[in-house]
Structures are given as structure tokens and as C-alpha cells.
Amino acid sequence: MLADRIPDVQQSLAEAGLDGWIFCIFQANDPIGLDLLDLGGDHLVTRRCYYLVPRVGEPRKLVHRLEPAMLEHLPGSTRAYLTWGEHRQELAKLVDGLPRLAAQYSPSGAIPTVSRLDLGTADLLRAAGAELASSADLVQRFAATWSDEQLAGHRRANEHLHAIVKGAFRHVGETLAAGREIDEHAVQQRILERFEAAGLWTESPPIVGVNAHSADPHYQPTASRTAPIRRGDFLLIDLWAKEKAKGSVYADITWCGVCAAAPSERQAEIFATVAAARDAAWELVASRFPSTPVHGFEVDDAARGLIRDAGYGEHFIHRTGHSIHVSDHGPGANMDNLETHDTRTLMPSTGFSIEPGIYLEGDFGVRSEINVALTADAAEITGARPQRELLALLP
């Protein structure tokens, strides 16, 4: 929680040349702010409230008189408003003397994860004399970092995921070899059962996609929408989960296989290209971190450039990787120069996925996903070794 780290926030503000960090909370507008200010759970923010951490001095709070206790668990002085006119006056007083403020704002909406401040509130802050700066780097430092305990839990979850995904592929192969029927949804449900047995939890079920479904990066089978898995088919499984303890961090991996004794030449070629792109992204991070800054967009460029040079650039239709935290898609830097131009620097005590893919619509798609944890000293691929060749599920 931010309340325990006020001195660290103030030091970061000083280093960035900022006068303060303002949180503007109303209902569920800002998940980052709700989490950092510990306003989740039973809190119901039905009136606008504000929390401002200045570079020097005690934090400032502004709440509605109908909800005077909304921020009482946080340190700092409190002022209140009732009418819309008082709201404007008190907001101007709140930011008085602090001309350059960080907020959950991203110029031109460049980083959607951080772009939570509504235009109307931005207008009010600017009218009060505030110059707004993006809190993106502050968010990464204070909302996306992992504790040692979280890193240990992530490693354990990742080991479980590798065992579970390999077991799922093995089960498909054994079922087909025995002449029995199986489909995507059945494999998905089996994986969820294995999650429960391993003490894992997920916010959404895994992707199990056969043939053309594997070329849809966000396909998910359901009981009413599922395809049979047959001999000769291509199969992709993407699964993500975390331990059930509060504050646990996700692991998220993708493996691919063929329901045959060996992949076709084209399947092997596509997988080899994706694996090489994955390795190029990883090698960029490993060779430079922590001695030389690495930016999210550079990691994307490393993977995307290899796939583009191989002639499949138009078939790589998502970013190379995403921040991982207590939600599978966390608030830290993404490995992205496609959907966004993510200029954030990769920081110690954070983690992310590297997951390039080539998707041949109507045919099959390949994705190979690993997780990277950054400690103070080095970059680490967590879990088992990356997949080196397509799994062949039948003798």
C-alpha cells in the first residue's frame, strides 16, 4: 500500500523533478489508484475524492462530506467539500503551490494502462495552475514491482504450469492413441482441475485452440463452442494462474504441439521462426539488464524484426509481451512497439512475458511464451526451459 512508502514516493518525485502525485478517485475509474490507496474490497467510492503526495511535506486529502472517512486510513491532512462550487475551490487549494503533478495520465493516451484521468478533471487541475505529467514510471515502481515472496510464489506457479501443460498434451496424445474422443473444452476443464489440485487460481480459463482456432490469439473454448481434437491436428495451449494467497503474482506460458508423430515442414518452420524471435527478445534483455537501460519497445522490436525478416510480419498481430503482476496483465512496462510505443525502462523486481506469435488465419497459429523476472542483479527465465521444438503427441 502507498501509505507505507510515502518517503520512497517523495524521493522518486524529487528524482523526476515533480512536485507531487495526485490520485483522483471516483467509483472504479482508476484501478491503479484504488489498489495503491487500498480502496478496493468493501470501499464504495460514490463521490469524488483526492489524495496528493507532495514532494515535501505531509500528504493532502480532499473528500466529500457525505463520505468523510473515505481516506481516513491514509496519512495526511483532510479537507472536505459538499457543493460543486466548493469542489472546484477545494481542488484548487489542494494543488496550490505544486505546479508540476504526476497523475494517471498518458499524453495522447499512449499507454492505456496508465491513461485513467478523465479530461474534465484534467481541465480542472490545469485551470488551477497544475501542469500534468504521466505517472507511468511511478506506477511501475510502486504498483508493478514484486516482493521476494511474490517472486518465490511466481516461480512455484510457473513450475506447476509447465507440469500441467505437459500433462495436458500427454493426455491428448494418450487419448487419441487409444482411439477415444476429446475436444478443446475437455482439455480446458482438465487444466482447471489441475489448477485446483495444485492450489492455483486464475481469473479466466486457459486457451486451448486446435487448427484454425490456434490462429486466434484470444480464442477460448466453451461447453457450447468447442472443436474436436483429432489425429493430424495442430494444438496450442496458453495457460495462466497464480497461487491463492493474497498478493500472489501470475505465471503465464504457451506451448504448442501436433497430434502426429512429427510436425509438417511448414509447422516446424513457423515454430522455429517464433522460437527464434522469442530468443532474440530474451537475449536483448539478458545481455543489457541491469547495466544498460532496456525499454519495452526495444524488446518488441527485437522479436518483431526477426519475424518480419522471415516474411511473416503481417501475421504477428499483438505485442511481444505484457507486464505480469497480481493481475495477469500488470501495470508495468509492456514489450510493445505495435499497439503502443512503450518507452518505459524495465525495472528490477518486475516481471513480464515474452510471447511472439505467427497466426495464419484459417490454418494454424504458433505462440511461444516465457516469463522473465528481473532481480537486482540479472534477468531470469522462470519455470522450465523454453520450448525448443513442437511436441509430437503420437508415436
Description:
With 395 residues, the chain is an alpha+beta fold. It has two domains: 2-143, Creatine Amidinohydrolase, Chain A, domain 1, CATH 3.40.350.10; 148-392, Creatinase/methionine aminopeptidase superfamily (Creatine Amidinohydrolase). Helices cover 33% and strands 20% of the residues. It has helices at 6-16, 31-36, 84-95, 119-127, 136-143, 148-177, 184-198, 265-288, 296-309; strands at residues 20-25, 49-54, 60-64, 77-81, 100-103, 131-134, 200-201, 207-210, 234-243, 251-258, 323-324, 350-354, 357-360, 364-367, 370-374, 379-381, 391-392. The protein has a six-stranded mixed beta sheet. Strands 7, 8, 9, 10 and 17 form a five-stranded mixed beta sheet that branches. The protein has a four-stranded antiparallel beta sheet with strand order 11-12-15-16. Helix 6 packs across helix 7 (184-198) and helix 8 packs antiparallel against helix 9 (296-309). The longest helix has 30 residues, at 148-177. The chain is elongated and about 75 Å long. The relative contact order is 0.11. The model has no long low-confidence stretch (mean pLDDT 97).
